[in-house]
C-alpha cells in the first residue's frame, strides 16, 4: 500500500520528490543580489520588490546546532503527540546563506560543527486520513549515503527477484 504524501508547506522545496532533484526554493533580489529562504517577494536588505526564484544548494556544512529534548507547546507546534527528541541546526550553503533546519541525527555526540550535510525529506506528521506530511531536513553526508545505498540495494534486490521470477515462469 502506498501512503499519500504532501509537503508541510507549498514553495519551501521542490515537490514531488520523484519529479526532480530535491532542492530548497529560495529567492534572489534582482537589485542587490541577496539570497533569501524561504523565498521572499521583497528584499530585507534593500526593500527591492524584484526577486527571482532560486533553487538552493542541496549540500552544506553544519554551522551550529542544538537539541530539542521536550515537546514544544501547542500551538504553534502541531507535530505528533508521541514526541521524540531531535536536533536543529544552521546549515551554511556555500556562497548562498545559512538555513535553519531540522537534522536527521538526534544524538549531539554524532554531530560536529563543520560537518558535511545533505538535504533530505523526513516525515513531520501523519494526518487523520493517513496522509504523511513531509518536511525538509539535513542529514550528515555519511548517514545520507548509507540511506541511499540501502535504498539502492533494496531496489536492486527487488529487480533481481522480479527477473528470476519472470525467468522461472518462461
Q: Please estimate the helix content.
A: 10-25%
Straight-line N-to-C gap: 28 Å
Strand order of the largest sheet: 5-6-7-9-8
Poorly predicted regions: 154-170
Oligomer: single chain
Strand content: 35-45%
Number of helices, counting only DSSP H or I runs of 4 residues or more: 1
Mean pLDDT: 86
Describe the structure using short key phrases:
170 residues; alpha+beta; disordered C terminus; single chain
Q: Mind sketching the topology for me?
A:
Layout: E1 5-7, E2 25-29, E3 35-36, E4 51-55, E5 59-68, E6 86-93, E7 97-103, E8 116-126, E9 132-140, H1 141-169
Parallel strand pairs: 1-9, 7-9
Antiparallel strand pairs: 2-3, 2-4, 5-6, 5-8, 6-7, 8-9
What does this structure look like?
The structure is a single chain. By secondary structure, this protein is α+β, with helices and mostly antiparallel strands. It has one helix and nine strands; from the N terminus they run E-E-E-E-E-E-E-E-E-H. The protein has one helix at residues 141-169, and strands at residues 5-7, 25-29, 35-36, 51-55, 59-68, 86-93, 97-103, 116-126, 132-140. The strands form two sheets. The protein has a five-stranded mixed beta barrel. Strands 3-2-4 form a three-stranded antiparallel β-sheet, with no helix packed on it. The two termini are 28 Å apart. Residues 154-170 have low confidence and may be disordered.
In short:
The protein is an alpha+beta fold.
Amino acid at each position: 500500500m502506498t501512503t499519500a504524501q504532501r509537503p508541510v508547506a507549498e514553495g519551501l522545496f521542490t515537490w514531488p520528490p520523484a519529479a526532480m532533484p530535491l532542492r530548497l526554493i529560495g529567492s534572489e533580489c534582482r537589485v542587490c543580489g541577496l539570497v533569501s529562504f524561504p523565498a521572499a517577494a521583497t528584499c530585507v536588505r534593500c526593500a527591492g520588490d524584484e526577486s527571482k526564484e532560486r533553487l538552493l544548494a542541496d549540500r552544506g556544512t553544519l554551522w551550529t546546532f542544538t537539541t530539542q529534548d521536550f515537546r514544544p507547546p501547542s500551538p504553534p507546534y502541531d507535530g505528533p503527540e508521541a514526541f521524540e527528541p531531535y536536533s536543529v541546526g544552521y546549515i551554511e550553503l556555500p556562497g548562498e546563506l545559512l538555513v535553519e533546519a531540522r537534522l536527521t541525527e538526534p544524538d549531539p555526540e554524532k554531530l560536529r560543527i563543520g560537518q558535511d550535510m545533505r538535504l533530505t525529506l523526513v516525515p513531520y506528521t501523519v494526518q487523520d486520513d493517513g496522509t504523511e506530511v513531509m518536511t525538509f531536513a539535513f542529514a550528515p553526508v555519511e548517514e545520507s549515503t548509507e540511506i541511499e545505498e540501502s535504498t539502492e540495494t533494496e531496489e536492486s534486490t527487488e529487480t533481481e527477484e522480479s527477473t528470476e521470477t519472470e525467468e522461472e515462469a518462461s
